[in-house]
Amino acid sequence: MVLLRHAKAERPTTAPDADRPLTARGHADAAAAGAWLGHGGYLPTVVLCSPAKRTRQTWHDAALGMAAPPIRPLDGQARPAGGTDGTGQAGGVPTVRYDQRIYHGYATDLLDLVRCTDPDAPTLLLVGHNPTISELSTLLDPVHADPEGLRTSGIVIHRFDGGWAELGPGAGPIVKWHTARG
What we know:
Layout: E1 2-5, H1 24-40, E2 46-49, H2 53-66, E3 95-98, H3 100-104, H4 107-115, E4 124-128, H5 132-140, E5 154-158, E6 174-179
């Protein structure tokens, strides 16, 4: 499971918080997050994303970053890196669900969303906000989670070998983390 905090957003204004867009740096960082995930082979089959503008933009830019450019093998024939469709995924585009609970909920709400994920989905990406996304990481691995939480464009990879429905507190050890900067 991959947890990704949204990239750097514009400062709050009089507009609703959910409408805050990413900054130019945020767009670059989100694309860098996607490139890091793609390079590491952490390509999602399911994406759960907050409907806020900054998280939707983060997911969109990360998805573009995951789409590796074609590689040229020794035979000179161009092939997409990592897959058959240029996204790095053999099966194509991941299933994406936008859920208000990721914007307004608690870590336990996010855990409930994850538990409802298709059991055949090998890799889940959750794009959300602090403090909730960091609290979910801490819930899954209270020993190794960063006590300061994820920074903007922060990524944490949790491993879970069971079915999504069985995921519970302390059952998802952290195997890798990264803060993307473009």
